[in-house]
């Protein structure tokens, strides 16, 4: 009754819309039309035995079901495991880079990115780079989703794994060199992964790190970098299975340029 008395006599167009606020609710309202992709980042420590957990989260958790990118470090996969066996749902396409002999090890490592086809179908995903060395594992994808703000022509997602025994200075140099080769001024650049003790801002100072809480013990090992300030809000989710890394859910907070600019009034004289 208080609401009715409060709004009595007002123009219906000016009444409060009574919409729930918050980054998560805005993302749910826009789903696959957010200005930047929503991302689930996890250090799986063997993706093969975490599939039941992943499929359950996709089935019963709306945020994970609508998530546009699932990025996994330490997938521990090999060429004997086909993509269709690790596909968590029919509306996700799988893109991966398994650890090779170039890393100096025959097991462990590996990267996997799963793309939601409701946001970007498989025909619009291009693999720009795959790299595996003793200091750095890298998978770079270029995506042309169905919707992007007008200031972006595509999304470039870099998934990175730097092993704990790696030479961090060498790894950052390799990462910076790879970044300069694929960077495009009209593409939305996102770098995610397990960096261990490395800090990409030392090599690329114009990037912002969006994960601010510990992801393993009391240390922040899993990072998300973009060139845009306040573009993501990071939330901690439970780890997959017995993994000792927290799962990170990245909610896009980026406000497109059209909404940031103040309206300009012009007078046209004829």
From TrEMBL:
Kindly list the GO molecular function terms attached to this UniProt entry.
catalytic activity
Q: Which SUPFAM superfamilies match?
A: DNase I-like
What are the start and end residues of every segment in region (Disordered)? 1-28
Gene3D superfamilies xref list: Endonuclease/exonuclease/phosphatase
Q: Where is the composition biased (Basic residues)?
A: 11-28
- Top-level taxon in the UniProt lineage: Eukaryota
Q: Which residues form the Endonuclease/exonuclease/phosphatase domain?
A: 43-245
| Coiled coil (UniProt feature) | none
Return the Basic and acidic residues bias intervals: 1-10
| Protein known as | Endonuclease/exonuclease/phosphatase domain-containing protein
Q: Which organism's genome codes for this protein?
A: Electrophorus voltai
Q: What is the lineage of its organism?
A: Eukaryota, Metazoa, Chordata, Craniata, Vertebrata
